[in-house]
Amino acid sequence: MKKVCIYHIAEQFLYEYYEQPGEYALSEKDEVSPLLKKAEDEEKRGGIVAAAQYYEQAEEWNPAGTAVRFHLIDCYFRLNRKEDVLAETKAVYPYCCTRAEMAQYYRWLGWYHLESYHPELAEVLYRYSTFFEESRQAESEIRFLESALNAKMPSYSVEELQARLTRAEIPLAASNVTMALLVRAEEEAEQNYRRTGAEAWRRQALDCCHMVLDCTGDEEMKERIRRLS
Fold it and tell me: Which residues of 150-180 are buried (b: 16+ CB within 10 A; e: fewer)?
């Protein structure tokens, strides 16, 4: 039976839906943290290839961990593995549960399309990312593209940006399926908290509420947060 290091109910729901693992067991030992430490140490020494390998191992233990996946994308970027950046960026999308994560998703797609000689789409992606999270990097890339194209980026409305992304078959927001799974995870965590009184379940339920609220602004989540706080 496959063992994983997925201890948060939100990640468990996403893992079960998107990976379809069948039967699995939670490892009694945290295998991910030591791998992350090794990866960080390698990065400090400039061992990006080794760091990427450790991040890949960590991802095997927890495919739902977005922090691991974004570290891995950054390694692929520094190794100039363009197609791996794209593949991993697409793979992380279903697990993006916050506006900050969605902003990273659009910025990495922007970089890929910049490197693939699609400057107008890259501009749109970088600009769209700033509606999820302000970023000096995104603004810098837009200035670079304006200089390279010798033309100021048009002042697109959100609707115009979304229309361009839709034509490129790029999602406009966090996955509705992911948000629905987080709601279900919150409900189960809250039931567990009411039944056991365990603080860990209350915190996990709140985490789910805050992620859905962050991405959707759902008023019901505000009520659930009030109820749990």
Answer: eeebeeeeeeebbebbeeeebeeebbeebbe
